[in-house]
Amino acid sequence: MSAKHNTFGAFRLITFFTLRATVAIAVLLIWSATAQAGELEVVLTDATGQPVPDAVVEIISPVPALPADWPLTGEMDQIDKEFVGPVLKVVKNSLVSFPNSDDIHHHVYSYSDTKRFELPLYKGDTAEPVLFDKAGVAVIGCNIHDWMLGYVYVGESHLMAMSDAAGKAVVPDVPVGEVRFKIWHARARANDLAQEHVVTMNAEGSTALSVQLALTPDRRIRRAPASGGLQY
Ligand SMILES: [Cu+2]
């Protein structure tokens, strides 16, 4: 065998091992990415033990970078003179649309510091989407129907989840190790809102815990009785 053949053979060998090493590293990276994150399951109850739906659990530390394909959009519909949700969670810098599925006009607004805006009387999906570029909560109302009440929760992090009817919020892709999170609910008291919860995420599967919230009484404005007259 000539020297030229030897060199070529060695080159092929190195290429083969480099390829194998690259594949092995890629597999390891994918494995570690899935192995080092888990689900955080938080079950929320009130002082009487009843489940608390519509609460948002947000991981505040550590927070991985926002995935490039994360949708920075949200939608809060209006059906039968109510905001659908009535809580919407979006990550900061999301564009939120407020379509009106009723056959009457709504006039949507928020006076909250998180986002002040007004969408004058409109029907359908003619209103411009609203950019929520500040983390926090915007309370949403309608100028025509005083009882309409919605909330846009704007997260600093995309690692968040909303509690369901059973009071359960499941946050996926939470990094393994010590994690801090906070809980928001429209009727939560200030000390519960300010509290940072600490949990150690397991290396395998999900990590679960329960949290009790002391909620303030529900003081929503009552709906006006249905009338057969002119409607806005
Ligand atoms: Cu309205």
Strand and helix layout:
Layout lengths: L2 H33 L1 E10 L9 E6 L11 E3 L2 E2 L2 E2 L3 E5 L2 E4 L8 E7 L2 E8 L7 E3 L3 E7 L6 E7 L4 E3 L5 E8 L1 E8 L5 H5 L2 E5 L4 E8 L19
Parallel strand pairs: 1-17, 3-7, 6-12
Antiparallel strand pairs: 1-14, 2-13, 2-15, 4-5, 7-10, 8-9, 8-11, 11-12, 15-16
Notes on the structure:
- The protein is an alpha+beta fold and 232 residues long.
- The chain folds into two domains: 1-34; 35-213, Cupredoxins -  blue copper proteins (Immunoglobulin-like).
- The chain has helices at residues 3-35, 190-194, and strands spanning 37-46, 56-61, 73-75, 78-79, 82-83, 87-91, 94-97, 106-112, 115-122, 130-132, 136-142, 149-155, 160-162, 168-175, 177-184, 197-201, 206-213.
- It has a five-stranded mixed β-sheet, with no helix packed on it. A four-stranded antiparallel β-sheet has the order 13-2-15-16. It has a three-stranded mixed β-sheet with strand order 14-1-17.
- A hairpin with a 2-residue loop joins β4 (78-79) and β5 (82-83).
- 26% of the residues are buried.
- The structure holds copper (II) ion (CU).
- Copper (II) ion binds next to loops.
- The site of copper (II) ion has 6 residues, from loops.
Tell me, briefly, the overall form.
Answer: globular
Distance between the termini: 92 Å
H/I helix tally: 2
CATH architecture of the largest domain: Sandwich
List low-confidence stretches.
Answer: 27-34
Radius of gyration: 25 Å
Helix content percent band = 10-25%
Tell me the β content. 35-45%
- What does the average pLDDT come to? 87
Number of strands: 17
Q: CATH fold name of the largest domain, please?
A: Immunoglobulin-like
Largest beta sheet: strand ordering: 6-12-11-8-9
User: Class of the largest domain, according to the CATH hierarchy?
Assistant: Mainly Beta
Number of domains: 2
Most strands sheet: 5 strands, mixed
The CATH superfamily of the largest domain bears the name Cupredoxins -  blue copper proteins
Q: Look at the helices and sheets and give the structural class.
A: alpha+beta
Q: Which kinds of small molecule does this entry bind, naming each only once?
A: copper (II) ion
N-to-C order of helices and strands: HEEEEEEEEEEEEEEEHEE
